[in-house]
Amino acid sequence: MPSSTERTTEQNRIVVCTPDELAELVREAVAAALAPRVSSELVPLNRAGVPVRTLRNAIRVGELVAAKAGREYLVERSALTAWLAARRVRPKSKAEPVETEVDRALARARRAGALRPVTKAA
Predict the structure, then answer these.
(1) How far is the C-alpha of 97 from the C-alpha of 76, rounded, in Å?
(2) Cβ proximity of 13 and 6 under 8 Å
(3) Whole-model pTM above 0.70?
(4) Which is it for the CA torsion 94, 98, 116, 120, positive or negative?
(5) Cα(53)–Cα(45) distance, rounded to whole angstroms?
(6) At CA 36, angle to CA 86 and CA 44, rounded to 5?
(7) Spatial contact of 2 and 18, defined as CB atoms under 8 Å apart
(8) 40-92: per-residue pLDDT in tens?
(9) How many C-beta atoms lie closer than 10 Å to residue 83's C-beta?
(10) Which of these, 96, 80, 78, 4, lies nearest to 38 by C-alpha position?
(11) N or C: which end of the chain has fewer CB within 10 A?
């Protein structure tokens, strides 16, 4: 099969291709047109799953971009997801237990032999 050739003029793009290649181009165009547009989905602040005051503060300081429709602010779902991902906190590693003065005194007494196990008399 001959491969497609492409000629571009100032305003038009002419593509010469085989019927199979044309069918593939149409399939790709239809799939792109029908694909969900997650990035352009606007979400009102009260349905974002985050307190509205927190989101308004983020908008005010420029951390989050929003559009205003009437009295309501709208944010893009993708921008909200990215903002939340940037604010995610990781749990800290478990800290070692703190040794108190009493623990140190008991350890010294054990090492010195001053403490001995007590058995219960029957």
Answers:
(1) 45
(2) yes
(3) no
(4) negative
(5) 9
(6) 55
(7) yes
(8) 688 999 998 899 999 999 999 999 999 988 888 999 998 999 999 998 887 77
(9) 18
(10) 78
(11) C
